[in-house]
Amino acid sequence: xxxxxxxxxxxxxxxxxxxxxxxxxxxxxxxxxxxxxxxxxxxxxxxxxxxxxxxxxxxxxxxxxxxxxxxxxxxxxxxxxxxxxxxxxxxxxxxxxxxxxxxxxxxxxxxxxxxxxxxxxxxxxxxxxxxxxxxxxxxxxxxxxxxxxxxxxxxxxxxxxxxxxxxxxxxxxxxxxxxxxxxxxxxxxxxxxxxxxxxxxxxxxxxxxxxxxxxxxxxxxxxxxxxxxxxxxxxxxxxxxxxx
Length: 244
Fold this sequence. Notes:
Elements: E1 3-10, E2 13-20, E3 30-34, H1 42-52, E4 57-61, H2 84-97, H3 100-115, E5 125-130, H4 132-143, E6 148-154, H5 163-166, E7 172-178, H6 184-196, E8 201-206, H7 223-240
Parallel strand pairs: 3-4, 3-5, 5-6, 6-7, 7-8
Antiparallel strand pairs: 1-2, 2-4
């Protein structure tokens, strides 16, 4: 599985990024993958390779590039609950500095870069994200309705921008929520907003999960939920992207 370390030109500098794609010498549909708040690390590279193995070019940018290359902070091999507070104490200033304006400027640059890579086929792309990356994926889809055909977000605060923001989305959507993040009542409220916005979506709570369930290097990891995530994501991409 070919991989590359890349530099994406942005209005604020250059974002380092990781890309994985099939070794077929062909062009493949593009997928922009936003990492969770812990950023690019071994588990994200493995997930990008897994997705690329199904026929996609997967680009994972370092969203905190303004603060240095990934990993921006030193991370343990396993991010357990005992170290999580100290890690987040370092990460929160970076997350808070990543304003909506920065998110949207970066999304422009990431999509421009992704769609001009020689290994990426012409046509629409997909965006997926985890935790805070799920919110970034949703914002990217709303800001680029003509380019983004599919958006998936897992254990992400996707409703944080309010119901009006959802009305800009024309992509097909899958939201996979952690049981600890969203009550059934809150899920119903979000889904009613998606209905009102006439979004083509699935939005569900993954049973028995806590925030971060896709990440195998955390205590939140849930293998069954990760498999469900792959089923939902691959089905969405198969429906929306022309994957030859």
